[in-house]
Structures are given as structure tokens and as C-alpha cells.
């Protein structure tokens, strides 16, 4: 189940250097998102497919002096079989924001009130 919250925003990170970029900026180890998960795993529980949980982590961004700036939750973008099409009647197509399939696609759940500041920090 999902709900749109006005106080939260989502930032998408994708590309071949996504993990390297984030590894140096946040307080948690994002390299685990680079570990491949077997194709036989699914978060949808069925008798024929073993269940797996969605990989996520909580992290913070600090300034160079180590003071807290922002916090965020990072999630892997859903796989094809985990998405639902707009009608809700079946699986969707492609990963969220997967333009060329190159690299990892991560979604960051952040506080909307600091989104602009956070984006400026990522662009520096």
C-alpha cells in the first residue's frame, strides 16, 4: 500500500556512477544496492516464487565538520514484476526511471520542506 504525503518528496538517482556518488555523501553504506539479487526472488509471495524483502536503508547527510544536514530513506526502484500498471489490473512495464538499464536506480524519500536545499547540496 502506498500513500502520497505532502510532507515527503522522492528523488531518483540512476546511472552507472550512482553508488559511487552516494557512497561519499551519506552516512550509510550504499554498496549493498550493487549486490545483485537472484531473478528467482520476488517481493510478491506466491507458492512458486520465494519472497524477498525490498532493500532499503536510512541515512543522513553531514557537512564537512560532521554536523547533521538532512536525513533520507533510500529504496531500490521496483522491478517489473513488482509494479502495477495505471489501471491496477496487472504488472507495469519497466523499472521506475530506468531509462537505459545502465547502473542502479535508487529512490530517496526526503522531507519536502528541504528538497530544494538538498538538491543544491547534491549538485555541488
TrEMBL record:
One GO CC term, this protein: mitochondrial matrix
Cited SUPFAM superfamilies: Folate-binding domain
Biological processes, Gene Ontology terms: iron-sulfur cluster assembly
InterPro entries: YgfZ/GcvT
Region (Disordered) location: 82-101
Transmembrane segments: none
Protein name per UniProt: Uncharacterized protein
Organism, scientific name: Tanacetum cinerariifolium
Taxonomy of the source species: Eukaryota, Viridiplantae, Streptophyta, Embryophyta, Tracheophyta
